[in-house]
Amino acid sequence: MSLRGTSLVRDWLRVRDGRLVLRTGKVDLGQRISTAIVRIAAQELSLSPDRIDVAPVRTGDSPDEGITSGSNSIEQTGYAQRRACATARDAALTLAARQMDVEGDDLELADGLISHRGSNRTLDLLDLLAELPADLAVDPEAPTRQASIPDCPPRGLREMVEGRFTYVHDLDRPGMLHARIVRAPLLRAKLIALDPTTEARLTDAGLTVVRDGSFVAVAGAREWKVIRAAETLQRACEWDIGTGLETGDVFEMMHSHDAQRFAISRGKPDPDAAVPSCPDAPGYEATYKRPYTLHAALAPSAAMATFRSGRLEILTHSQGIYFLRDSIADSLGMALEDVTLEHVPGSGCYGHNGADDAAFDAALVARALPDTPILLKYSRADEHAREPVGTAMQVRVAADTGGDGTIERWWMEARGDTHRGRPRPGPNRAGAARLASNTMRETDVPRFVPEPNMNRHAGLHRNLDPVYRLPETALVKALVPDLPLRPSALRCLGAVANVLAIESTMDDLASAAGIAPLDYRRQHLDDPRALAVLDRLEAALPPLPENASRGIAYAQYKNVMTRVAVAVDLSVDDRGASNLEQITLVADAGRVVDPEGLRAQLEGGVMQGASWALFEAVTWGPEGRECLDWDSYPVLRFDNVPQVDIHLLEPPDAPSVGAGEASPGPTVAAIANALHEATGLRLRQMPFDADTIIKAALESG
Amino acid sequence: MDRSGLTLTVNGKTHELEADGDMPLAYVLRDLLGLKGTKIGCGLEQCGACTVLVDGAATQSCASPAALFEGRKIVTVEALSDDPTGRRVQDAFVAAGAAQCGYCTAGLVVAVTALAQTPDAPRDRDALKTALAPHLCRCGTHPRILAAAEAVLGQEGT
Questions:
Q1: CB of B88 within 8 Å of any CB in chain A?
Q2: What is the Cα gyration radius of chain B?
Q3: Are A178 and A88 in a shared domain?
Q4: Whether A28 and A126 share a structural domain
Q5: Which residues in chain B have their CB less than 8 angstroms from residue A636's CB?
Q6: Domains in chain B, please, with CATH?
Q7: A463 three-state secondary structure
Q8: Is residue A222 less than 8 Å (CB to CB) from chain B?
Q9: Phi-psi region of A429 (alpha: psi -120 to 50; beta: other; left: phi over 0)
């Protein structure tokens, strides 16, 4: 995919000032993709990572690799970079042979030097790479060599621990103004009045109020003054919120609102197939629910924008700079070549948070104040109130087993709103329609209506298809648009709710059959790599701590990526609070590019899954969200961090697959299964917090 | 907003500053002194990203007015590179790969340094987990951060 349109070696690597500069369209979100591609280049070119840089990711310059999401980067940019480097290496060796007038077979490449065995003559690899023809195309068949290289620390780590790493929030430019939005209670709220005396007082104090319809922002030289001014303006605004947000049980709304339903076959919606109905009187039936969840990045979103001579330049931590550029250009009626976006680091993001909206908001302020760099930051409350939420979902399972407990029939439906809320071009100006502030401005951008995502393992139906051997499977995706909150992509998309449903069901069926959970899964798996992962988990399991209970789960992300088995050992105290004691995880991600990076991603996924399982849920009322800080939106903290042990299997010759989203789903499911083991309660609605557990215990008598 | 004179001792230097009335310490550090290593994550002192040392104690700085810190000894992450304990903590974080996006890192490096510099601070894992509970990390780097802290506190204890 990545080589389409960017098929030349020079699209992927160049030499500048005696250093190799790698080019990629994938951005670093803390997941170490830039470290991984440096390692790939170092392996293919036998070059020290110290001599390799990664170019900024910038529209019009970097390869367009779409969005950095879906755990796809190592398979897309990693694949392209490896082939580009392999092609470049072969071409450099051929060139060296010609320049030295020797046989290519007598040349050796090591540590960035090409040397001739017969004469001790050497050439610098980078000098040769600089001389390669500009039209040299990447050869997808170029043999790769994967020389072993020592582990190297992630790029930027030393700067981070010393406080020298620059985030978009830290940028400073001569003449720069800080800016904040004045947050409306809801998107689509109408500004009825803004008290003119307040506005005049702020203007007198040197601040500038920017308005476009109901979009309001304030800019000024001192950040703290701007923050206070935004708060003052917020109190001076009168809003019409219409009927407000629909309140009540979102899972009931998923049935009372119209749904578009599709049969899923081999991981894809089939619009022509009849939608299979739930079997009558199944032996097992249950519904699993996941609430709306925030991305809740540690830093609220921010962006810097400058509008000069009709051109807009935006520095953003968006995951998809090309799509965002197109959406912003469309919103402002500008030509694509007049809008440039460059990625700069923000905090970790885990999906479509406020980054894209903040970039657009900065652009709106910059356009009103030309020739002035505008650094716009959201407040914590802005981010919690405005960022798109992870989609609420419910998954219903019905299954029948034979006399020996073997599953014979499986029906499953995943229901909820879209996961695809990122600004990206589509029918009816879908890119512009998905930028928050276009719902506030005076503009003719139509209201966004989601289309069902028909790709394989996308959105609601990601991991809907169980990996187990099931003789008769019927799967349904039910898209219910227009639920109360604006949803979009959050790490793993539908896989969390689907894996929770599948793995809870597997445990319930195992228990009914009187078979151990690990054995029951083995009995329903043919894939030798899945079986190897489960065997290794069993071998790696530590002794169960006193008073702890254990739950396990298995999943393969999108059924084709990393295989993960997890065991969670936890205890529950008499107030219903769960204490995570230890988590053991085994993963098979194919060939490992960056072992420490892979472990860190899997561990991070475990911790995020644990936070979702035990704590996270968005609350709202008619006048907007009610969880606007870290007290009202609790997340996992250090006091509940377990011992985490990660074991990697690396089968020979297996291609590298993405792992960033492989561990959260099975972690959530293993926690649910461990809680069942600990309390006897089968909890089917996340989060499994103390209140939920106490309530369930009281209800079960 | 009124401006008033302010005298702060930061990283061993005394600064005479003009701050906006209730301007919190973190904003003074970042915007008036250019010390951008101290991060702001919430403005509510709920997430720990803004932690600095105040007279040796780990202290969140994004909501409390800077005026409250006059006469106190403030140390930010930038100064820890020149401090033997701070340096050991930084090295331990690097060795443990204890950052992903890194936005929580500076606050945690400061917090662990404070623990390491307190001779009677408890050093077992549970006490450490409680001590770091004011800090959020959303990338899930907690196990590595705990490992880095344990490595440093283990050395300090011997």
A1: no
A2: 15
A3: no
A4: yes
A5: 142
A6: 3-78 (3.10.20.30), 80-157 (1.10.150.120)
A7: coil
A8: yes
A9: left
Helix H, strand E, coil C: the string for A147-168 is CCCCCCCCCCHHHHHCCCCCCH
Residue with tokens 């105040």: B54
What is the separation of C-alpha A55 from the centre of its chain, rounded to a whole number of angstroms? Answer: 22
Please give the pLDDT value at position A2: 76
> CA nearest A288: which of A263, A259, A247, A251?
A251
- Partners of residue B27 in chain A, C-beta under 8 Å: 223-224
Indicate whether A663 pLDDT > 50: yes
Rounded to an integer, what distance in angstroms lies between the CA atom of residue A179 and that of residue A366?
10
Specify if A280 maps to a domain: no
pLDDT at B157 over 60: no
Burial A280-294 (b: 16+ CB within 10 A, else e): eebebebebbbbbbb
CB contact under 8 A, B140 and A639: no
Ranges assigned E (strand) in A185-258 = 190-194, 208-212, 215-220, 237-240
Q: Do B103 and A225 touch (CB under 8 A)?
A: no
| A343 bridge partner residues | A316
Q: Over the stretch A83-139, which tens digit does the pLDDT of each residue have?
A: 999 999 999 999 999 999 999 999 999 999 999 998 989 999 999 999 999 999 999
Secondary structure (H, E, C), A399-411: EEECCCCCEEEEE
Flag if B105 and A161 touch (Cβ within 8 Å): yes
Pair A186, A244: CB distance under 8 Å: yes
A451/A318 Cα distance (integer angstroms): 22
Dist CA A664 CA B139 (whole Å)? 12
Q: Work out the pLDDT band at B2, boundaries 50, 70, 90.
A: low
> Which of the listed residues A148, A182, A203 is the one where a domain comes to its end?
A148
CATH number, domain with residue A54: 3.30.365.10
Contact A331, A323 (CB under 8 A): no
B141 and A157 within 8 Å at the Cβ level: the answer is no
Take residue A117 and report the two structure tokens written for it. Answer: 């065995």
Dist CA A306 CA A294 (whole Å) = 30
CA separation for the pair A334, A501 (Å, rounded): 46
Task: Please check whether residues A134 and A178 belong to one and the same domain.
Answer: no
Closest CA to A258 of A450, A455, A116: A450
Report phi then psi at A67, rounded to 5.
-100, 145
Q: Extract the runs of DSSP E, i.e. beta strands, from A598-669.
A: 620-621, 624-625, 643-649
pLDDT score recorded for residue B156: 56
Residue A252, in any domain of the structure: no
- Give bridge partners of residue A409 from the DSSP assignment: A400, A472
Radius of gyration for chain A, computed over Cα atoms and rounded to the nearest angstrom:
27
B73, B114 Cβ separation under 8 angstroms: no
State residue A11 phi and psi, 5-degree precision.
-70, -25
Task: Say which range, A391-395, A672-676, B17-21, has the weakest mean pLDDT.
Answer: B17-21
- Locate A580 and state its tokens: 């995570």
d(CA A341, CA A316) in angstroms, rounded, equals 7
- Determine how β-strand A374-377 pairs with β-strand A177-181: parallel
Written as six digits, the tokens of B57 are 């104690």
- Residues in A touching B31 (Cβ below 8 Å): 222-224
pLDDT of residue A1: 61
CA gap B56, B45 in Å, rounded? 18
Query: Number of folded domains in chain A?
Result: 3
Where helices occur in A166-222 by DSSP H, the ranges are 196-204
For the segment A418-461, what is each residue's pLDDT rounded down to a tens digit?
999 999 988 899 999 999 999 999 999 999 989 999 999 999 99
C-alpha A216 chain-centroid distance: 30
CB-CB contact of A340 with A264 (8 Å): no
CB atoms within 10 A of CB A174: 5
